[in-house]
Amino acid sequence: MVLKDLLEKNRSFRRFYQDVKIPRKELEEIVGLVRWCPSGRNAQPLRYAIIDTEEECARIFPFLAWAGYLTDWVGPEEGERPAAYLVQLLDTRVVESCLCDDGIQVQTIMLGVAEKGYGGCIIKAFKNEMLREVLALPEYMKILYVLALGKPKEQVMIEEMQGEDYKYWRGADGIHHVPKRKEKELIFRAGEK
User: pTM value?
Assistant: First the structure.
């Protein structure tokens, strides 16, 4: 698969076939991909908690926020929830700031997830203290992101952005629509206003 195809396949999925489990070995392989990522100062301060049992997933779910633009939707229903989570943690004993490592590694993980035929959603909105308690984290571990993973149960359609309306939406048919800018809009030329 060429990179462009993999990027197109890598969407933010929020509904999953909850009963389709991701084997622990595959989750570990996906996390292992970050070994090959660049790291600011080469500090490599990020760690990952793998949450893959039904009980653990159920304990984490209430502390996550889903799809801010879908104001009438509180998240996936039972049966459509993630089969696993990866929680990205910063070990502050190594460094206080990971610079750009977090984004590089999250994208690498999500591409690895897509390559294996799964999907996921990057979650930044969560109840930090409650999640810390559930994960029994030591003080020096800081939660950066939660990656919700599973076999996608929804269709995500990419569309050309109309004007400046970048908000995603879900149609009555359940299809999730995501507007994207045209390629030429991504390039800034010196002297533009």
Answer: 0.96
